[in-house]
């Protein structure tokens, strides 16, 4: 279960874009998180890259699918001044983690969320992107 997201700072917007709105069961997918700063102050966070998306049961924060491959990334200091925008590469997967039978999510309609948080020991604040619909096919 993902913890709820605190309120975003005034003017900060997170947008998730999936490369494709459907994926085969058991497969990985690509996405991008767009971070826009339209507030009165700059925003800085070391998020690292790539970010990892999770698949949740629609309308909830219950994680049911994850990426199960190897993960390697780099540091990524996100520094935005007012009016600026940056993109962060993101990926996810449909390996099943809800306790059900099988290793891959069954076909169906789910949602995808990305947790945007600082790397390291103190991962707060941790903001969640608004969810996007993902169709998992056979």
Strand content: over 45%
Structural class: mainly beta
Please tell me how large the radius of gyration is: 15 Å
Q: Count of helical segments? A: 0
Shape: elongated
List how many beta strands DSSP finds.
Answer: 12
First-last Cα distance: 25 Å
- Average pLDDT metric: 95
Major β-sheet profile: 10 strands, mixed
User: Assembly state here?
Assistant: single chain
Order of helices and strands: EEEEEEEEEEEE
Helix content: under 10%
- Taking pLDDT < 50 over at least 5 consecutive residues as the criterion, the unreliable ranges are none
Detail the topology: elements first, then pairings.
Elements (H helix, E strand, L loop, with lengths): L11 E7 L3 E3 L3 E10 L5 E4 L4 E6 L6 E4 L10 E4 L3 E10 L1 E2 L11 E9 L10 E2 L3 E6 L1
Parallel strand pairs: 2-12, 5-8
Antiparallel strand pairs: 1-3, 3-8, 4-7, 5-6, 5-10, 6-9, 10-11, 10-12
Description of the structure:
With 138 residues, the protein is mainly beta. It contains no helices and twelve strands. It has strands spanning 12-18, 22-24, 28-37, 43-46, 51-56, 63-66, 77-80, 84-93, 95-96, 108-116, 127-128, 132-137. The strands form two sheets. Strands 1, 2, 3, 5, 6, 8, 9, 10, 11 and 12 form a ten-stranded mixed sheet that branches. Strands 4-7 form a two-stranded antiparallel ribbon. Strand 5 (51-56) and strand 6 (63-66) form a beta hairpin. The chain is elongated and about 50 Å long.
């Amino acid at each position: 279960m993902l913890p709820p997201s605190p309120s975003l700072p005034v003017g900060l917007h997170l947008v998730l874009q999936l490369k494709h709105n459907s994926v085969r069961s058991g497969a990985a997918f690509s996405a991008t998180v767009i971070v826009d700063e339209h507030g009165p102050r700059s925003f800085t966070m070391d998020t690292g890259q790539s970010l990892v998306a999770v698949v949740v049961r629609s309308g909830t924060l219950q994680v049911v699918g994850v990426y199960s491959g190897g993960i390697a990334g780099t540091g990524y200091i996100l520094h935005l001044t007012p009016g600026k925008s940056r993109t962060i590469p993101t990926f996810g997967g449909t390996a099943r983690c809800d306790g059900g039978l099988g290793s891959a999510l069954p076909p169906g309609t789910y949602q995808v969320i990305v947790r945007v948080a600082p790397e390291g020991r103190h991962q707060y604040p941790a903001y969640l992107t608004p969810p996007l619909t993902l169709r998992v096919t056979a």
